[in-house]
Amino acid sequence: MSEANRSDLPLPDYDGLPLGELQHRIRALDATELRTLLAYEQDHGQRTAVVELLTARLEQLASGAEPTGADPAAPRPQAPPRRAGSPVSPATSTEPIHPPPHGTPEQHGKPKGNRAV
After folding, report:
1. Which residues of the chain are under the pLDDT cut of 50?
2. CA-CA distance, 105 to 93, in Å (whole number)?
3. How many angstroms separate the CA atoms of 69 and 59, rounded?
4. C-alpha 75: how far from its chain's center?
């Protein structure tokens, strides 16, 4: 397949897809479309991980797996953004720590009863 046939690929933005996105999208493709992508990859990118991914999916289809029927051009649903920061709130925080019995610079310790001051 030549550069001019890039528009014939079953995934229009194939060259710019990260591996995780590609893995999601190829599940909707049939064996013929996967072979088209594999031939293009072998002629152009030769990315080992992509060739392995396409080959593995072809083997899954040969073993009886079915394409998902989803739109292969649709982006993968994004997980909701993770909250940053601590999950601790005043309701879930621990009790304040009391100073040790020997005192702190702001709170001097008390002498024992049997010692002279």
Report:
1. 1-4
2. 26
3. 18
4. 14
Under 8 Å between Cβ of 45 and 37: no
- Token representation of residue 56: 């593995």
Q: Is the pTM of this model over 0.85?
A: no
Is 54 within 8 Å of 26 (Cβ atoms)?
yes
Beta-sheet strands, E only, within 5-114: 103-104, 107-108
Distance of alpha carbon 32 from alpha carbon 105, whole angstroms: 77
Q: Closest by alpha carbon to 40, among 54, 19, 22, 24?
A: 54
CB atoms within 10 A of CB 44: 14
